[in-house]
Amino acid sequence: MERISRYILVLVAIITCSIVLPKVFWMAFEKPVRAPFVMYSCVLNDFTVFDPIEKKWIDTKGNNYTREEYEATLPLFYARQLMVSGTMPDTINGIAIDVHEMNRARSTFRFKPEELDGPQPRLFPLFEAESGRANLEMPEDYFRITWRMEFIDAKTNQVSEEKSRKFSAALFQKGFAFPATRIAGIPTTRKSCDEGYLIIDSANQLYHLKMMEGIPYVQQVVLPDGLKFKYISCVDFRDRKFYAYLFSDNNEIYILTEDDYKLVKLPIDGFDASNCELVILGDMFHYNVTIEAENSVKVLALNYSDYQKVDEYNQSWPKLAERSEGKIFAALFPFQLSLTNPNSSFNRFYFDFSAGFACLVVNLLFVGLHAGLLIRRKAKMHKHIVDFVLLAATGVFGFIAVNFFPNKFFD
Q: pLDDT per residue over 297-340, tens digit each?
């Protein structure tokens, strides 16, 4: 029993070391890489790059700019600053700049991988889209879509049968296959209007649902064969061009246009929703699409009117594992255990094994070092075979653990 208890303590020590030591290492030696800020200039018809480390503003041709000159190349992005300084142009590319139209076309969309792998709500508020009020008001009930669509009163926790039957029937008549596998919307009153929810049923078909004067409005969106969506983010932009950004299982990015419900595939490649951050900034002339991965940044400029690609910018740098601190880490630590992950919103155990064979050599060195300590103590080697196996597998973590809880106390 004593030996079993000792190995339990050793295992706990290994787990603790594999969580703490890598964090201490990265805190001490990691040199974070800051990605440049890249925007497409409608004045230069070229990308402008701000280097946050060297504090430089350049374009792709190598021309340097002062901060004021750089801001002048992006008049729609820095419009407020240019208006304050009195340098905002009246026309750009022969088009008169109207402040109202400029603000109407402006949009911002951000996505992080943790949004894809995170807890999802189970109940949703359905707002009245035609209330006649200036502001949206929170409803008194919330809905879920399981074997039917159910509305649950927030105060009494009772199902509103009449409303539930009415909306369930409306979905069923449009061919909806219960239950819903994904429900996407903007469940807040802080939006210009309510456009309801985009819902994927169990047959991977897409539907638009909202409530207009208490009556359900349901519209099926015709999808090409084989197209499946793993993520939907509804938007509330002033130009009212589309309902949402949709990510397919193949990491293709679509938009769903308003009123005519057309799916438009954006010419964006190199995006992986599981490990890439995405930022899309829109203005009167372009959509500036930034895809940031661990070791690269890719920026595309799309035409505002037809979403066609205008230009593309790419920059990369060595991955963390390829840099000197990454190689030292891979040799010293055979693996890393963490409770969090930047690409997930869940707290759970995340194992990250080191690549290469350097860690195996280091592990064997720790085996030899431990054998030397045992010889010095004149210990019996056959009683430490399990320790040697642990050292060969866990390296420095096991070395600390088996020496913190040594076998000699139980000999």
A: 999 999 999 999 999 999 999 998 899 999 999 999 999 999 89
Buried-exposed string 211-239: b where 16+ CB fall within 10 A, e elsewhere: beeeebebeebebeeebebbbbbbbebee
List, for residues 73-117, the tens digit of each pLDDT value.
999 999 999 999 999 999 998 899 999 999 999 999 999 999 999
Q: What angle do CA 142, 143, 149 make, to 5 degrees?
A: 155
Helices (H), 129-227: 161-173
Angstrom distance (rounded) from CA 244 to CA 210: 15
Q: Report the distance separating Cα 410 and Cα 105, nearest Å.
A: 74
* Cα-Cα end-to-end distance for the chain: 13
Residues composing the chain: 411
Q: How far apart are CA 248 and CA 232, in angstroms?
A: 9
Interval 341-362: pLDDT, tens: 989 999 888 999 887 788 889 9
What gap in Å lies between CA 159 and CA 150, rounded to an integer?
Answer: 7
d(Cα 294, Cα 329) in Å, to the nearest integer? 17
pTM of the entire structure? 0.92
Q: Which ranges of 121-183 does DSSP label H, i.e. alpha helix?
A: 161-173
